[in-house]
Structures are given as C-alpha cells and as structure tokens.
Design a protein that fits this description.
This protein is mainly beta and 116 residues long. The chain contains 1 helix and 10 strands, in the order E-E-E-H-E-E-E-E-E-E-E.
C-alpha cells in the first residue's frame, strides 16, 4: 500500500526554521530518488528538492543554501530542514518520488506559513 505522511509544518516568523518529515511506505521509498514539492495558494505544485539513493541532492535556486534534504533509509523517512524561511516559502509541502505527477498518489501535505 502506498503511504506518504508529511508532518512538521507550522507557523513561523521570517528567518525561522522548520524541519519537515515524511513517512513513506517501503515499496515507494526503497532505492528510489525522493523529492519535496510545494504548492503555494493559487499556484501549481512545484518541485523543491530531491535526493537519490546515493544521497546526491538537488535544490531549486531559491532554496539552495537554506534548505537541506535528507533521508533515513532504515526508517523510510524523508526530511527537509528549512532555515532562514521567507514569506515566499509559504505553501503546502508534499513528498513523493522524484518525477511524481498529478496522477500519482499524494499525501495530505503539511502547511508551512511564514509570517510575522
């Protein structure tokens, strides 16, 4: 059964930090490149960062140096450490396999709101 359960979001002031977690079913996680995506209000869901099975990572330019993606293969868990948060980071954050599209199964996401 495919399960993606995101957690760790919340309300934070600009400049603050949050750590997101995503518990993933083993059939989805094992050996796969995984990614974080986000969907801001009124916008489409966009790719944010990815990590492959060898721990090579990739980030979009706007989060590079502020966000860190990591994975724990023993726990089938994906993480996103977000530092120096900005209001434009406000979105619902989702995890999934790298390259997941609208027809893929998605979790409920976790809301991140950056506001003073």
């Amino acid at each position: 059964q495919v399960q993606l359960v995101e957690s760790g979001g919340g309300l934070v002031q600009p400049g603050g930090s949050l750590r997101l977690s995503c518990q993933v079913s083993a059939i989805v996680f094992s050996g796969k490149s995984m990614a974080w995506y986000r969907q801001a209000p009124g916008k489409q869901r966009d790719y944010v960062a990815s990590i492959n099975s060898g721990d090579s990572v990739d980030y979009i330019a706007s989060v590079k140096g502020r966000f860190t993606i990591a994975r724990d293969n023993a726990k089938n868990t994906l993480y996103l450490q977000m530092n120096t948060l900005k209001p434009e980071d406000t979105a619902v954050y989702y995890c999934n396999v790298f390259g997941a599209g609208p027809s893929s199964i998605w979790g409920q996401g976790t809301q991140v709101t950056v506001s003073s």
